[in-house]
Amino acid sequence: FLTILSILGAIGLLLVLIVVHEAGHFFAARFFGMQTPVVGLGLPFFGPTWTLAKYKDVEFRFHPVLLGAYVAIPEMDDESANTEEFNITLARPKRSFPAWQRMIVSFAGPGANFIFAFFLAIMAVTFVGVPKEFFIMQINPAATAEVKSLLKKGDQLIKLDGQLIKSQYEFINNLKQKANQSVNLWVQRSVGQNEGQYCIQGTVKTNAEGRLNIILATGSQFGKVEGIPVVAHIQWGWKYFVEWFSYCVNAIALLFASLFHIGQHRVKAEDVHGVLVATDMIAKFIRQNASSVFQWGALFSIELGIFNLIPILPLDGGHMLFQASEIISGGRKLNKFREYVAQAGLTAILLLAFLIIFNDLRYMLFVKH
Predict the structure, then answer these.
(1) Distance CA 122, CA 112 (A)
(2) Which of 68, 95, 187, 285 could form a disulfide with 155 if both were Cys (CB 3.0 to 4.6 A apart)?
(3) Residues 6 or more apart whose Cβ sits within 8 Å of residue 208
(4) Model confidence over 298-326: pLDDT tens digits?
(5) Up-side HSE of residue 329: CA atoms within 13 Å toward CB?
(6) 3-class DSSP state of 82
(7) DSSP annotation string for 139-156
(8) What is the DSSP letter of 200?
């Protein structure tokens, strides 16, 4: 029963992130006076369509395949502009809007995801608190010999150069400011299960990037935020958001670097997954710790926003690229070239979708069990 609830909760979370994305487009379009005749929950191309309500000039539709959401904006130059495909009758003739306004509407979807992730970070700080323990989860093979000799997996980080370590973000940021310098670390190490703990102090040198090549994880101890409540919550929420945003950017950059065989660390094709595996993974964490929904919700909201900013059609980033070129060229829309780019982009996304579906099904049917 708990498993079913956690899976439903994970699916609901992913659907909320999509609705937030579309809400960004909706409110930005309404702000500039664009028509938004239809708002839909679910995929419009599968199964029946039900009209739930109509408010002024907006019709709210529901589709039983709840794997997405959409907003029809006929005055945009994207796929939502096709009124015949959505069976839409406009209340008034279409107007022409400047490229910069359409560009803001395109960005508003990813922007809404980023704002929502920041909001979830503040909620995590407010209702869960901030971690009080930081452990070494892994020491990378690229770490220096002195790092490997001083530190071990499972060590709890206590101090950096005499200062208490209060967050992963501060620890990583402070290291970056001390590239190619020696830093003093205090760690606490457990000996067996019931044999006690002892502290270790030592000096190690960072590399040229200000890293020690270790991966950290937070412990189970969380505490209240120190300082003025609202101000401190926003500050810590921002730290969380920046940390999670950096993580997502690095993950997506690693994926694209792997496609072009750039760098030493590469993502294998079989490791690229989508909604099915993401839902299963989120459900597991929700069962273990319900408060983790804030972090996972923020991470997936950021990833959804960043992915949509990739400059290929039909993603928002692709529309923004052509809208920017329209601004630079003084109004030329390059419609013919846009069609070719859109076809190529759609083909690439469909290939990626097939790969993700194949990997997800293989994992759920064979690897997971």
Answers:
(1) 15
(2) 187
(3) 179, 180
(4) 988 999 999 899 888 888 998 998 889 88
(5) 10
(6) coil
(7) E-TTS-HHHHHH--TTPE
(8) E
